[in-house]
Design a protein that fits this description.
This protein is mainly beta. Helices cover about 0% and strands about 45% of the residues. It contains 2 helices and 41 strands. The strands form 10 sheets. Strands 1, 16, 17, 18, 39, 40 and 41 form a 7-stranded antiparallel sheet that branches. The radius of gyration is 26 Å and the shape is elongated.
């Protein structure tokens, strides 16, 4: 079904300039979890608007320290590797300027080398990590050629030769007066570019039109609509621009809990134990089709820092701790009868272990043992024989790591062994071997991981303000949307959808959120 969004009306009042606006660029500038707005006017200086969270925006008059630049393109990205989104701009003559984000207070222009100062006449700016060193590089396009500037670290850029001929010169960029008539008369679209991907965003989303409803008539040439398929409707031309918006949607609240276990069977997520106002033995089921919670039979023992995994219609609650000791307890929950039964205990009692299921077997990885020592040991549980078998240990001991599975392999991220760990190890149960992969951007513990499609999402952990996403196909990490600093949560893929559950920011939370990736396509009226 084709859904169309007509970009014709302003839905919220913003302190915008009187002159035409070329772009509205979204970014959480101050990392408060709300998307702020950078106004790129057709003429005049940039304006940064802080999102107050109540549907209004505040103009940050001192956002640029020594004065806001005049620019016709602006791109957000962490140029200096400090975790804050910095800004690159192209001026009226295609000149490049860079600004560092000072902890969400204001932007300060960076001193730059000759390679940056000499850029003139660029018509397009993009950020990407072309050499895989996890530092954003710059590409600049122009009628006379292209230029690639490599980030040597700390936003220090050096020119890269293209095709052995050295950096190609950039011709002067065309003025707005020389642009095609349709481009000059078309109303502005909102946009944001990070690491080379163009993103359009509504203010907030305008009304949608389904395929059962006729596309509104009277849309002037040059105006844009958005659809959820790449095929242009009659009378429109595909622009090649793709809208990519990722967000979390609040769902029905659960019992406040942290350091619990969670696993999905079909369209139901089962959440077990954890800590609330006291240690919990309670169990709840969340139906992703009705977005409702149901109380279920409790476990036999209240415990926290346990893990959970599902095999068939059974959920296994593994390890954890009670008020006085570390547990080797394993319980099996039958989702068809709402009953629990005790199974063979772990060979090594452990809390804070990562627990996953692969090919009908359950794995417990790392954690802390009964002597409160970080451990690297791994055990495999076979439900058909009710036995645990030791497997190859994790490359280093850790507690509060998180794991997820895809293609028969276990991806173990981070953890704690005296300090947060920034690493990724992959376990192949078929060969009982570990492989080390590219590390994430920051060390995490008390976080959660899950696959959505073929992408691994890592959410939460102390000090972690953004979600990270890993692509196993190219062994590469990227930072994605902000997320509140939550630890001890769980993230579960149920029915091909991603849910974040519980956790704490000081006190246990009743959080239930669903990840909502939106991909739309922009079409221009002929």
């Amino acid at each position: 079904m084709l859904h169309l969004t007509v970009m014709l009306v302003t839905l919220v009042q913003l302190p915008l300039p009187d002159a035409p606006v070329d772009a509205l660029v979204w970014q959480d500038f101050d990392r408060d979890g709300r998307e702020d707005l950078l106004v790129v006017p057709g003429s005049g200086a940039l304006r940064l608007l802080r999102n107050r969270g109540d549907g209004t925006f505040e103009h940050l008059t001192r956002a640029f320290g020594r004065g806001a630049p005049v620019a016709r393109q602006a791109v957000w990205g962490d140029l200096d590797g400090d975790g804050w989104s910095d800004l690159a701009t192209l001026g009226p003559r295609g000149e490049l300027r860079l600004f560092t984000n000072l902890a969400g207070d204001h932007l300060e222009e960076l001193p730059v080398g000759l390679e940056v100062r000499s850029v003139q006449g660029a018509s397009a700016l993009r950020l990407l990590d072309f050499d895989g060193d996890r530092a954003l590089d710059l590409t600049l396009d122009g009628p006379g050629g292209a230029r690639l500037l490599r980030n040597a670290g700390g936003a220090h850029f050096v020119a890269v030769e293209l095709g052995g001929a050295g950096p190609a010169p950039l011709a002067p960029a065309p003025s707005r007066e020389s642009a095609p008539e349709a481009a000059r008369t078309a109303p502005p679209s909102t946009g944001s570019t990070t690491t080379g991907s163009t993103v359009l965003a509504a203010l907030p989303p305008p009304p949608t039109v389904s395929s059962a409803t006729a596309i509104p008539v009277g849309i002037p040439p040059g105006y844009m609509i958005l659809g959820d398929t790449p095929t242009a409707p009659a009378g429109y031309t595909a622009t090649g621009l793709v809208v990519k918006q990722e967000r979390w949607i609040d769902r029905a609240a659960m019992t406040p809990r942290v350091q619990h276990g969670a696993a999905a069977v079909g369209n139901t997520i089962y959440v077990c134990g954890g800590s609330g106002s006291t240690l919990l033995s309670s169990v709840e089921g969340y139906d992703i089709s009705t977005h409702s919670w149901t109380s279920l039979s409790p476990m036999s023992v209240a415990r926290f820092s346990l893990g959970a995994a599902a095999v068939g219609t059974k959920v296994y609650a593994v390890g954890g701790g009670d008020a006085t000791s570390v547990l080797g307890l394993v319980e099996e929950y039958d989702t068809t009868t709402d009953t629990w039964s005790v199974k063979a205990p772990l060979g090594v009692a452990r809390l804070g272990c990562a627990v996953v299921a692969v090919a009908g077997k359950v794995y417990a990885l790392g954690g802390m043992d009964a002597s409160f020592t970080y451990i690297a040991s791994v055990e495999e549980y076979d439900p058909s024989t009710n036995t645990w078998t030791p497997k190859a240990p994790v490359p280093s001991a850790r507690i509060d790591a998180s794991a997820a599975t895809i293609s028969g392999k276990i991806y173990l991220v981070g953890g704690y062994n005296g300090a947060p760990l920034a690493d990724l190890h992959v376990f192949d149960p078929a060969t009982d071997t570990w492989t080390t992969k590219a590390p994430p951007f920051q060390g995490r513990y008390g976080h959660a991981t899950a696959f959505l499609g073929n992408q691994l999402f890592v959410v939460g952990g102390p000090g972690a303000t953004h979600i990270e996403r890993y692509d196993p196909g190219i062994d590469t990490w990227v930072r994605v949307i902000p997320h509140p600093i939550i630890q001890g949560l769980s993230v579960v893929n149920a029915g091909g959808r991603l849910f974040a559950l519980g956790g704490a920011t000081g006190m246990p939370m009743n959080l239930t959120q669903e990840f909502d990736p939106v991909v739309l396509y922009a079409f221009e009226k002929n």
